[in-house]
């Protein structure tokens, strides 16, 4: 199993937002912190904005910031949002499926159960769980000159 790059990027970008709660972030600076192209980051930010996770400010000093409190951002929901349109196995998409086994295959049911368990675990995690007290992450993602001593947001 492998997450799509955009799902992983969404998590990185949201963590960057949460580590910089008082700033309007530029896509380019976030892309640098997240080690991706500005273009790729912009697409992910657009999707996050469309679903209400970040709000954007237009103009020269524009950018984006977290639109919700970090404890209201479910990592499971974010993963579902970005993974939803990609079928995990070929048979998960009835329109394009060509698997000859699909009428009798039992594996699909077990994969579905495994995915349910996977998302269930992530549903119990919030963005706040990822950043709160994580001084190492703060040191990597905080754009302020100094990381706060407490690291306890
Ligand atoms: S082998 Fe089973 S789980 Fe895999 S694509 Fe075919 S029907 Fe789906």
TrEMBL record:
A Pfam family assignment: Rrf2
Claim: DNA-binding is one of the keywords in the record: yes
Annotated organism of origin: Meridianimarinicoccus roseus
Keyword flag DNA-binding: yes
InterPro entries in UniProt: TR_Rrf2-type_CS, Tscrpt_reg_Rrf2, WH-like_DNA-bd_sf, WH_DNA-bd_sf
UniProt keyword annotations, A-Z: DNA-binding
Name used for this protein in its record: Transcriptional regulator
GO cellular component entries: cytosol
Domain of life: Bacteria
GO molecular function annotations of the record: DNA binding; DNA-binding transcription factor activity
């Amino acid at each position: 199993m492998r997450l799509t790059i955009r799902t992983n990027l969404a998590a990185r970008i949201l963590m960057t937002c949460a580590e910089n709660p008082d700033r309007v972030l530029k896509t380019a600076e976030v892309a640098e912190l997240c080690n991706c192209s500005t273009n790729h980051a912009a697409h992910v930010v657009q999707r996050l904005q469309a679903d209400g996770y970040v709000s954007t400010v237009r103009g020269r000093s524009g950018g984006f910031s977290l639109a919700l409190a970090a404890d209201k951002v479910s990592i499971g929901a974010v993963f579902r949002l970005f993974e939803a349109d990609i079928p995990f196995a070929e048979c998960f998409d009835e329109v394009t499926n060509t698997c000859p086994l699909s009428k009798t295959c039992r594996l699909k049911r077990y994969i579905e159960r495994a995915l349910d368990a996977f998302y269930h675990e992530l549903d119990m995690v919030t963005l706040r769980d990822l950043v709160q007290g994580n001084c190492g992450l703060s040191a990597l993602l905080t754009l302020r000159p100094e990381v706060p001593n407490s690291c306890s947001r």
